[in-house]
Amino acid sequence: xxxxxxxxxxxxxxxxxxxxxxxxxxxxxxxxxxxxxxxxxxxxxxxxxxxxxxxxxxxxxxxxxxxxxxxxxxxxxxxxxxxxxxxxxxxxxxxxxxxxxxxxxxxxxxxxxxxxxxxxxxxxxxxxxxxxxxxxxxxxxxxxxxxxxxxxxxxxxxxxxxxxxxxxxxxxxxxxxxxxxxxxxxxxxxxxxxxxxxxxxxxxxxxxxxxxxxxxxxxxxxxxxxxxxxxxxxxxxxxxxxxxxxxxxxxxxxxxxxxxx
Length: 261
Description:
With 261 residues, the chain is α/β, with parallel strands linked by helices. It has a single domain (3-122, 170-259), classed as Alpha/Beta hydrolase fold, catalytic domain (Rossmann fold, 3-Layer(aba) Sandwich), CATH 3.40.50.
């Protein structure tokens, strides 16, 4: 499994969304630099640009492969894990399966209900369209506008730099296989019902019509050390539409891990 590593210190594993690759989480690099002392391990999940899918054909197989990869890369070290969207579902699995070694868990617009028709999501809402994004994106404009809630040139440039390469490089045949078996065998919180007591951060977006926000909040009692945030003026790409708030919340999560209480 391909990984981009940067920095040194305590390992933190970062897991991207479905159909993307590790580059979608690179906007968090300045946040980790500001916090200091973190060895970032950005994985390409099976089927992403740098990681051939092989025979992987389900989310559960992706999750199992990530657990093996994490163990191989961090050895006996305690570590933290952060996942975005689909990567949030995988991060929850990793955090619960390796609970005794996990320092903290964070999700960004994380998948909490795998089946799309069971999710509680708001209606599709676009708060601002900006014609200035059109010449910046060209043929990728429709892909951008599938999820954009607050359009801006900065957001469009970030989409082109961090999201579009993963979309273009994904193994669509493998993703189609995984989509047919998108649910984990068991929800992590149900398989491991004891409360998860390490510092946790769940960041959701009020206009996220892909995974919504309330399904994450329904797990609030399972995470007594969690901060839950629902950010306005953001959709599924909350990291790009509310970068400063996301950075502040991740910084707080990292500080709470450092405090060790």
